[in-house]
Design the sequence.
């Protein structure tokens, strides 16, 4: 027989004894019975047990939490019985035996409820939480009793003492945790446990205790490819108690150089540095504790900096919405500060809800995550993402209004990937794509693709193509097209001359293309046309 069915039998038995009490009270059909109070007591006890069993079995709960729920349910049920007994007594339906015993129901209800909250407090996560929660429970229960005593006129000589004890317990609980800000009220702890039953906790990020400001520029990577300027605020980011990297907030410059083109940008944004060699990059970093003026410069508080750092370092899939949430809170505070690194420049399907310390992210088919304070929970059965290994060397993510860029530097070279830029340089190869222009060299072939001209140069081939004109050289064979005309010639001298002109113009045409110009490409069309006698 299932537990729920057994619980219902107990409830039905209670109903039968209650009906027997009514019969014995109103009629003589049962004969000269002297067990009226036993019938009623048995009914109340059975109903109370039924409530306890039902509360224990309700939902999926750990034994301590189920026990607390059972005690709480029994306490509420007995408290309701106390009210019922008072009403029946006022109507004259209770014999004299009850006159001095109705308060037993009240004390039993308080005992059950208090025990329930104490069980909850005793199973809290840390010793501090357990002590504080226990004191809050004792204080709250005592103040509840004081209110009942005052209303019912019970124990008039002890009202003041009961009130003082309740206030003292709550005050002591407050003082115990005054040195730390914790979301440890019983209701929130209840939320923790409800979530744990449905979801599993996942590792979370945390930041260093203090925010610092750079007093000198920080140069990251060989040849100072990335520079974070003095004045930027930063926090170290930890995961599983190990430092994973550093997030900077402020102005910086990144420089990416190939043999024919250099990308250099100065941006105000976020910079997240990490990787297997990140600790070495921090040597010599000059900084100081952040001051009020440093926060005012960006319109951010200490808590904002830490929250932004965790969001950015954890590569949160809902980072855009969370950045905007912080920006909205700052705007609503009345501050008029430009924060370009908080602009929403990325998106992800899903919903994001924030209520106080609780944040819920629904990632549309990828599961739901809930953050409470610093703890994160994910759905059971959700596809877990593999923990990414730290990249070799140094990796820096740069977030600005114009781009999201990831730069990785190690012994094999430098790569940079953004929404409008791709860059990769090794000792034997170069590639850079910026907007609609692409340049590549791998030691054997040079390639240019742009709106103005496409060029390919290899050991046995040279090709140049632009709007309305194309010339290709393979060995001694030359083919060319211009407008509606086409020619094919086998000539070593002509092939050599055309190849030299294409190779000689490759670099200036590529530099023009990255600058948005096509002048050199048009001049090469004219020179090749002359060479081909067109």
Sequence:
């Amino acid at each position: 027989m299932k537990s729920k069915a057994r619980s219902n039998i107990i409830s039905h038995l209670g109903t039968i004894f209650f009906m027997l009490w009514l019969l014995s009270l109103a009629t003589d059909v049962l004969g000269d019975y002297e067990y009226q109070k036993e019938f009623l007591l048995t009914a109340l006890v059975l109903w109370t047990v039924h409530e306890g069993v039902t509360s224990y079995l309700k939902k999926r709960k750990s034994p301590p939490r189920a026990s607390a729920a059972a005690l709480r349910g029994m306490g509420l049920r007995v408290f309701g019985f106390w009210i019922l007994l008072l009403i029946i007594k006022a109507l004259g339906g209770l014999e004299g035996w009850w006159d001095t015993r109705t308060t037993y129901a009240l004390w039993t209800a308080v005992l059950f409820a208090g025990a329930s909250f104490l069980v909850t407090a005793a199973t809290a996560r840390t010793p501090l939480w357990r002590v504080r929660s226990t004191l809050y429970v004792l204080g709250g229960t005592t103040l509840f009793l004081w209110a009942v005593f005052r209303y019912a006129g019970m124990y008039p000589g002890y009202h003041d003492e009961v009130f003082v004890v309740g206030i003292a317990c709550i005050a002591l609980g407050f003082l115990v945790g005054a040195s730390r800000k914790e979301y440890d009220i019983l209701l929130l702890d209840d939320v923790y446990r409800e979530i744990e039953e449905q979801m599993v906790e996942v590792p979370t990020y945390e930041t260093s205790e203090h925010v610092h400001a750079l007093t000198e520029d920080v140069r990251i990577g060989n040849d100072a490819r990335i520079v974070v300027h003095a004045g930027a605020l930063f926090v170290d980011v930890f995961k599983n108690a190990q430092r994973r990297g550093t997030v900077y907030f402020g102005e910086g410059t990144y420089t990416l150089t190939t043999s024919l083109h250099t990308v250099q940008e100065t941006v105000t944004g976020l910079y997240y540095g990490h990787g297997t060699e990140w600790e070495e990059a921090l040597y010599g970093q000059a900084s100081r504790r952040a001051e009020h003026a440093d926060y005012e410069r960006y319109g951010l508080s200490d808590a904002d900096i830490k929250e932004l750092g965790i969001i950015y370092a954890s590569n949160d899939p809902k980072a855009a919405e969370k950045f905007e949430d912080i920006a909205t809170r700052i705007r609503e505070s009345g501050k008029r500060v430009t924060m370009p690194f908080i602009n929403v420049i990325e998106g992800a399907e899903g919903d994001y809800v924030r209520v106080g310390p609780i944040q819920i992210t629904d990632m549309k088919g990828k599961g739901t995550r809930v953050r409470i304070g610093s703890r994160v929970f994910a759905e059971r059965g959700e596809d877990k993402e593999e923990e990414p290994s730290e990249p070799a060397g140094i990796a820096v993510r740069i977030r600005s209004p114009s781009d999201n860029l990831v730069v990785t530097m190690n012994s094999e070279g430098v790569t940079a990937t953004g929404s409008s830029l791709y860059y990769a340089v090794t000792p034997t190869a170069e590639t850079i794509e910026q907007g609609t222009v692409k340049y590549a060299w791998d030691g054997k072939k040079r390639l240019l693709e742009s709106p103005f001209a496409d060029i390919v140069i290899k050991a046995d081939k040279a090709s140049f193509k632009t709007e309305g004109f194309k010339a290709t050289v393979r060995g001694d064979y030359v083919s060319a097209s211009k407008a509606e005309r086409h020619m094919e010639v086998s000539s070593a001298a002509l092939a050599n001359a055309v190849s030299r002109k294409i190779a000689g113009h490759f670099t200036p045409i590529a530099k023009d293309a990255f600058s948005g110009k096509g002048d050199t490409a048009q001049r090469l069309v004219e020179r090749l046309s002359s060479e081909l006698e067109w």
